[in-house]
Design brief:
The protein has 11 helices and 12 strands. The protein is α/β, with parallel strands linked by helices and 335 residues long. Bound molecules: S-adenosyl-L-homocysteine (SAH).
């Protein structure tokens, strides 16, 4: 039973929910006692019936330069998930959240994939990641500017809960973060992309591409067998037609694997003339004996030049937090 159902059961008025939502999502209170708009006995009842957060803090780490903070949370059933807060030099603050315990997709380069999937996160477990950092930042007079679903898990395999979380994040009466400040990243789950484009919301879509042809993509991302590149690109063309929104493509740079001039040209041809932006991500090693390696900086620049020739804009993503295993793909939390 959730709080709304509980309040209805005990005959409380509907506006109590509005008061609670305001306290949780706008004032970022730390416990039920701080919701002073509620009568004291109701606060006591809530304290007895509900834990204030669905997540406990297991571990908190900050990178040496303090730009990145990683938190390992523990769910009520003792599983761990991670979130990463990134303070960009521009002053903007981005939060990267998890949406599943583990992930079923087994991408070769990703630590989370090694775990397999344990379970989906519930909506409240996604929102509680946000609220934890929001409360913390409030003390500094700061707030989260952007939220990205790029932590553990595949958002489009936990579609309902992720979209419900997006609704709470966006709703002006709840958290009130603009859709354009929210990004969902997918490994290319076509049915999810189709559903998502029918929602008619302006949330950013990022596609983990990582290879410009089927052979290489299947080698790196087994999900490409179920949703091959041509079908994926056809679906994305429809997405652009429907939404007129630019798609972000993530492309991890793996030395000697996908970073040569050949792949750059293939990628250039694949995205030429489309509403696209490529994020080139230097690979973050996930193991000490990792056979995959990060591309040389010079190779990354060359790759970018080729994309430029095809008129495909790209940026090289700065890696934050690799000293605390908080960088992309390094999120792994064992039970
Ligand atoms: N399942 C979703 C979201 C999680 S991955 C998806 O696949 O998009 C978020 C981003 O981290 C993706 O672009 C992913 O490709 C990238 N990533 C994963 N492992 C990485 C690694 N070892 N180094 C750098 N980036 C990595």
């Amino acid at each position: 039973m959730n709080i709304a159902e509980y309040l209805a059961n005990i005959g409380e008025k509907k506006y109590r929910i509005t008061q609670i939502e305001k306290a949780l999502y706008k004032e970022f209170v730390h416990n039920f006692d701080e919701i002073t708009t509620l009568p004291k006995d109701l606060r006591e009842k809530l304290k007895q019936e509900f834990p204030f957060s669905s997540l406990k803090i297991k571990l908190e780490k900050a990178s040496k330069n303090k730009q990145t903070e990683k938190v390992i949370f523990e769910t009520k059933d003792d599983y761990q998930v991670e979130s990463v807060l990134m303070r960009h030099l521009t002053g903007r603050i981005t939060l990267c959240v998890s949406c599943q315990v583990g992930c079923p997709n087994k991408c070769l380069f990703c630590a989370t994939g090694k775990l397999g999937l344990t379970r989906d996160l519930k909506t409240e477990e996604i929102i509680d990641q946000y609220l934890y950092f929001a409360r913390k930042l409030k003390k500094e007079g700061k707030r989260i500017n952007n939220i990205v679903f790029m932590g553990m898990g595949e958002p489009f395999l936990n579609y309902e809960n992720v979209l419900h979380a997006v609704e709470i994040l966006n709703n002006p009466h709840k958290i009130g973060l603009g859709f354009r400040h929210i990004t969902i990243s997918t490994c290319g789950i076509i049915p999810g992309i189709r559903k998502f484009m029918a929602e008619g919301i302006q949330v950013n879509l990022a596609i983990s591409l990582h290879a410009p042809n089927d052979k290489l993509r299947t080698e790196l991302m087994p999900i490409n067998k179920a949703y091959p590149l041509i079908e994926l690109m056809e679906t994305l063309d429809k997405y652009i037609k429907k939404t007129s929104r630019r798609i972000f493509y993530e492309y991890i740079m793996l030395k000697g694997k996908n970073d040569s001039a050949k792949e750059a040209q293939e990628l250039g041809k694949l995205l030429q003339g489309k509403l696209a932006h490529v994020n080139l991500i230097p690979y973050n090693p996930i193991d000490t004996d990792d056979p995959l390696q990060q591309s040389e900086e010079a190779e990354i620049r060359k790759f970018q030049k080729v994309l430029q020739k095809y008129g495909v804009p790209s940026t090289v993503r700065a890696s934050l937090g690799d000293d605390i295993d908080a960088a992309c793909g390094q999120l792994i939390a064992k039970k």
